[in-house]
Amino acid sequence: MSVHFDAGWCATDLGDHRPCRLTYERYSYDSLPVLDGARFTGAFQWLGEPGEPLPERTAELRRVSELLAAEGLALPADFVKFETASNLRGRLDEVSVTGCWSSLSEPLPSPVEPGAFLVRFFRDQQDCVLWCLYLRPSGEVFVVNSHLDYEAEYEARDEDGWEPRSDLDDPVAQRAAILWCAPTFEQFAYRFWVENRLWYLTDDGPEQELHLDAELRAYLDHYRADPAAAG
């Protein structure tokens, strides 16, 4: 049986439109602007031309793909395209206002769901939050985040003299540590890209909002129209 994860979005503020008490806040997923899923076809047209294939990155992903294939799983096509195209890879690192960076892990067993695996792909510079693909035996793949680095957790459990930060055998605690945040990688990437671009324009005051393009303005209008969504 598939495990249900709570849904939420871990991010920083959007100026006065969506306050944040610390570096990050966990915002209710229902409070976010709704994205049109039909728009996200895996082409990343909203980022322009994808560019040329990156041979070294393709080889890195091939290794992860082989490990997943042994478990009957596969990386989603949108993730592979983003990570192996010269004009796409690194775009989230570039726009991140909190110093997040791409960091690919090997497949890590889900601590709560037999046969499911995590593949970390992005992390905060201080590991306040880490983002992973969550792959199920059914073929379902979505994006989750956690304050736990599961690669380090498993290494600590298996290494003499080290202790993991959490009890990997406690399914209740582990389910609470994993938060569903996007139905596809491309939708995660789009929301992260939009919000971080907005931060630069909203953090400097209302006058900067005059420079918003139509796409950013439409996203921010969600909070202008419904101040309760900022909570």
TrEMBL record:
This protein's name: Uncharacterized protein
Lineage: Bacteria, Bacillati, Actinomycetota, Actinomycetes, Kitasatosporales
